[in-house]
Amino acid sequence: MALPKRIVKETERLMAEPVPGISAVPHEDNLRYFDVTVEGPSQSPYEGGIFKLELFLPDDYPMTPPKIRFLTKIYHPNIDKLGRICLDVLKSNWSPALQIRTILLSIQALLGAPNPDDPLANDVAQHWKENQNAAIQTAREWTQQYAKPQ
Amino acid sequence: MDSEDEVISVASSEEMMEDQDSDLSMGGDYSDVDLDVDDPDVGFETQDKDIKPKRRPYEVEFNIYGPADIQSHQDQQIDEVSAILGQPPEATAILLRHTRWNKERLIEIYMDKQDTLLEEAGLGKSLAKLPELKKVKGFVCEICCEDGPDLKTFSMKCGHRFCLDCYRQYLAQKIQEEGEAARIKCPGDGCNKIVDSKSLDLLVTEDLKDRYQVLLTRTYVDDKENLKWCPAPNCEYAVDCRVKQRDLNKTVPTVHCTCGHHFCFGCTLNDHQPAPCSLVKKWLKKCEDDSETANWISANTKECPKCHSTIEKNGGCNHMTCRKCKHEFCWMCMGVWSEHGTSWYNCNRFEEKSGSEARDAQAKSRQSLERYLHYYNRYANHEQSAKLDKDIYLKTEKKMTQLQSSSGMSWIEVQFLDAASQALQQCRQTLKWTYAFAYYLARNNLTEIFEDNQKDLELAVENLSEMFEKPTDQLSGLKVEMMDKTAYCTRRRIILLSDTAENLKNGGAHSLRLRPGSFD
């Protein structure tokens, strides 16, 4: 199946004018599958880490949202053990006018502002609410341990 | 027993005649009394119009609506409110859905703070301009990135413009895949404008429009508290019933759908009169979850008095040594073994205090298990019998044809079999739930009356059921007796349900009481 114009354009633009701190590169053999890296935002416990994600554009994209998942282990109340992300724009608030670029920015923003009141990883969220400093410390350690740039 | 039964059954059919004196005018003879008492005015509408059939205490008022009725109800309300608010119908529809079809509240809020309401409902100000397709110079669709001077585009009032193809695909995705209708938003990012029906008409194909209407009707019924879909498979009727959620402890609103399905309006489970919804829910949960496993454990095992490990004794003497904590005790009295002195292997210390408490707890749980099993067995038995009766019902038709050919009876003359089979089903259904209900009842005089009623009905049902299974050649001779018994069963059921319903409704000290904690 030919790649829709929309995906071609988006990919071109992602390569030509990349978003600072974010990269998304399509696989050569599957142009709907992207290797993504996101830098941890400064002044967050994820600062200094580089997080790998995978992103897939389903057949009915952009009518349905892209599928996206963290590959790097991360300690975050809205991201679970399998790397799945709890983010409104990836689900009910998806709009076909959104793009890969905007979604990745949203994910980066989520790293900067965890929301333990709408958790995906319950244990992490509870830790976050009961002792925020300790939770942030764990997140920092995990970043050091798993998200160090090679 | 038999003769007594007959006396009662004759009396009962006389009572029935008095009850339904409206039917007397029909001049039917006694044996032709309408057996399906639940539905007394079938075919007599014209004569009985001025005499409203009296409702029994356990019956509730309800109406059945088909898809067309529901549609016209919606349209009617939309038109009415549209005229008051001065908004076009498609916008009024969105507003009504926003306030869940509460007209009064909508009008009130609209008068109070129109702008906020319009914004919240996803409308924005004035929708007066008709939606239209446009070609816009230099337009690039944000969704598919197509451009060109011939591209047809569309936008709602919010100004988020996309090409027709994308809009179509978007709506198809929402309607077909996501089953969304009442709250489809503009495809623009973060835009809350709701796609109204007029715009939709312009954009989508006919089959999607139909689906859209079906979905809208569905949300209408879901939104209205007094409407519920009939849960029978493929049934497209909705039931309108005014019973309030908070009254469900006092009434059991069984409704009869046009499709033939009887169900409870409160919980949409199958008819479960006379037991109230909350008890039914509890009972079903009790029956299926493993709380009974725990009951078995407590009835068949004992706990080590020291470390409380669960122990099942499968042989050997009464001198127990707990494998875990090495505590030594006597299985009989649960007391410490060392206190037994020399009377080994023969515990005669039954009144000793150290063991009596452990034994009391044991006895209690055994008793409660037995109590539960008593009711459960009867409940399950009627459920099973109802299933078997249903099989028989399927064979009834065959029986009726056989009877027609063997005895020379006409079709109308063998209908008593059908009536008997239906009465059986219905009574078993009721009986089944009386047992679940009785499990939760506290003991008092009314409970005894309830149990008497239950016993009477059960006896009548078993009699009829037995008769029903007789070979075909005997059936024609039993016709009158069977009709009597059918009427009697139905009558007993009505008495039981009426009594119970009245008792539930009245509440108070002198009525049926539930065991403490039953309504938690």
TrEMBL record, chain A:
The keyword Transmembrane helix does not apply. Its EC number is 2.3.2.23. InterPro entries: UBC (IPR000608), UBQ-conjugating_AS (IPR023313), UBQ-conjugating_enzyme/RWD (IPR016135). Keywords: ATP-binding, Nucleotide-binding, Transferase, Ubl conjugation pathway. The keyword Translocase does not apply. It comes from the Eukaryota. It is an enzyme of class 2 (transferase). The active site is at residue 86. GO terms for molecular function: ATP binding; ubiquitin conjugating enzyme activity. Residues 2-148 form the UBC core domain. Belongs to the ubiquitin-conjugating enzyme family. This is E2 ubiquitin-conjugating enzyme. It comes from Viridothelium virens.
TrEMBL record, chain B:
It comes from the Eukaryota. Residues 31-42 have a biased composition (Acidic residues). It catalyses: [E2 ubiquitin-conjugating enzyme]-S-ubiquitinyl-L-cysteine + [acceptor protein]-L-lysine = [E2 ubiquitin-conjugating enzyme]-L-cysteine + [acceptor protein]-N(6)-ubiquitinyl-L-lysine. Residues 1-48 are annotated as: Disordered. GO terms for biological process: protein ubiquitination. Its EC number is 2.3.2.31. One of its GO terms (molecular function) is zinc ion binding. InterPro entries: Ariadne, ARIH1-like_UBL, E3_UB_ligase_RBR, IBR_dom, TRIAD_supradom, Znf_C3HC4_RING-type, Znf_RING, Znf_RING/FYVE/PHD. Keywords: Metal-binding, Repeat, Transferase, Ubl conjugation pathway, Zinc, Zinc-finger. It holds the Pfam family IBR. This is RBR-type E3 ubiquitin transferase.
